[in-house]
Amino acid sequence: MEGSSMKMSRGKKEKKLSHVIHKVPSGDGPYVRAKHVQLVEKDPEAAIVLFWKAINAGDKVESALKDMAVVMKQLERTEEAIEAIKSFRSLCSKQSQESLDNVLVDLYKKCGKIDEQIALLKQKLRLIYQGEAFNGKPTKTARSHGKKFRVSIKQESSRILANLGWAYMQKPNYMAAEVVYRKAQMIDPDANKACNLGLCLIKQARYEEARSVIQDVLHGKLPGAKEIKSRNRAEELLMELESFQPPPLLLNLPGLGLEDDFVDGLDKLMNEWAPNRSRRLPIFEEISQFRDQLAC
Description:
By secondary structure, the protein is mainly alpha-helical. The protein has a domain at 11-96. The chain contains 14 helices and 2 strands, in the order αααααααββααααααα. It has helices at 2-22, 30-39, 44-57, 61-74, 78-88, 97-110, 114-129, 153-170, 174-187, 191-203, 207-218, 228-242, 260-273, 282-288; strands at 139-144, 147-152. The chain has a two-stranded antiparallel sheet. α5 (78-88) runs antiparallel to α6 and α7 (114-129) packs antiparallel against α8 (153-170). The radius of gyration is 24 Å and the shape is elongated.
């Protein structure tokens, strides 16, 4: 009896230690079993089956849905993950919808659904300038790599704009990408977004403007400019610039692809967060003469 008791005690201790090491939640429900299979046994296919069981049983549906989508993405089952979130997000709380949208954006990016990604990012920005994001609060708690941190609504806006700019670059619609990257920089500037903005200008043959933006990175004028990755990219872009001839006359401008109500909403954010700046960025003044040609 004593030996059996010791084995049970040792088993409990090992199970508790496993929860701590692998960050598996405690308990014995379907969701906990799914996490154990995912993180400890490292069997993603079996984990997906158990996540489905957790969702059907109503056990931590939000967490099960997001975790299952992540595992499906790792297994290149991205389309299935997208359909799962669309089908079952109605079972999740209102507070969880923002984080589910973040998962969806990542899934759209993974499988090349650029138009869907753009539409969802625009919707997230609309929620911000309508005051509905973060449940009306100025900050929220986010999690990355197991660590919690606070994110402000301004930081989130800049992050979403940067993602939107990257999506437009994949279209490729460099004029629209430039617009949103400039607005992102007005809110929360950094070297990475500056490099992307510089690339947008290069693609539009606006080489001197691109040079100025890229040199701001090389001269350390922006947050993150001292990071090796940012400096290397800025140097590569500058070398690329050196190979170009003077810009040709730009004809057949591409459609901007930004609706007027969307641009006006972003302008409201600029008025609130950067009141001393011009209401509209110079790019809007530059393209106003081509308004009839632009697909707004």
